[in-house]
Amino acid sequence: MPLVTPLSPDHDKNTQELAEFFNETLGFCPNSVLTMQRRPAISRAFINLNKAVMANEGNVTSALKRMIAWVSSNATGCRYCQAHAIRAAERYGAEQEQLDNIWEYRTHPSFNEAERAALDFSLAASQVPNAVDEEIKERLYEHWNEGDIVEMLGVISLFGYLNRWNDSMGTSIEEGAVESGEQYLGKHGWEKGKHE
After folding, report:
1. Which has the closest alpha carbon to 179: 63, 78, 83?
2. What is the distance between the terminal CA atoms of the chain, rounded to a whole angstrom?
3. Residues 91, 25: contact at Cβ < 8 Å?
4. With contact defined as beta carbons under 8 Å apart, do 84 and 30 qualify?
5. pLDDT digits (tens, 9 = 90+) for 99-152
6. For residue 123, what are the contacts with CB-CB under 8 A and spacing of at least 6?
7. Could you give phi then psi for residue 66, rounded to 5 degrees?
């Protein structure tokens, strides 16, 4: 049972309008947002930040951004966000081979060196204490420009917020996210955990 019960999607009209963004990314409005709208300024600010972070202004694709989110969520252990991130990666055109082998991104041939550098950055930046070092920086700069790196860290930071929010709330996971979690992550032990 979640710490705080989500409100109806039509509780706050401004949040509801902004949340249409999630119909594209996930196919539903996440329960996390429905909980945030108990303080509508938070839900609105979060959705606007999410839209800004996920906008593509450089070379980082929508699919890679969602895989960066998955690595970050996996590093912190948030099963809710793991399922959401892999679902969004699928919906934004990640290759089937990458979805099926996300756990092996460091060695699987479906990932190139630029993607590995980005995903390793996500892993290092999501750890406590932070593990971003000179080697991570050098690898990033081999493949990405500074604007791309800002976009990546925006995703990592956004999911740092979401990982803490959803694990602390014990946010109830939506059926569509469960399906994606079981399909792509279940073979490695993914389960809903506290997100019933």
Report:
1. 83
2. 7
3. yes
4. yes
5. 999 999 999 999 999 999 999 999 999 999 999 999 999 999 999 999 999 999
6. 71, 72, 75, 131
7. -70, -30
**The model's pTM:** 0.96
Provide the token pair at 102. 């996300």
- What value, to the nearest 5°, has the Cα angle with vertex 84 and ends 78 and 85? 85
Query: What is the domain partition of the chain in residue ranges?
Result: 13-54, 62-188
Q: Does domain 62-188 have CATH number 3.40.710.10?
A: no
Whole-number percent of the chain with pLDDT over 70: 100
Q: 13-54 with 62-188: one CATH topology?
A: no
Asked whether the predicted pLDDT for residue 1 surpasses 90, the reply is no
Locus of tokens 């980082």: 60
**Which CATH number is 13-54 given?**
1.20.5
Q: According to the model, what pLDDT value does residue 193 have?
A: 93
Hey, is 59 helix, strand or coil? coil
Query: Considering the chain, what is the average pLDDT of its residues?
Result: 96
Alpha helices by DSSP H, 37-133:
40-54, 62-76, 79-91, 96-100, 113-126
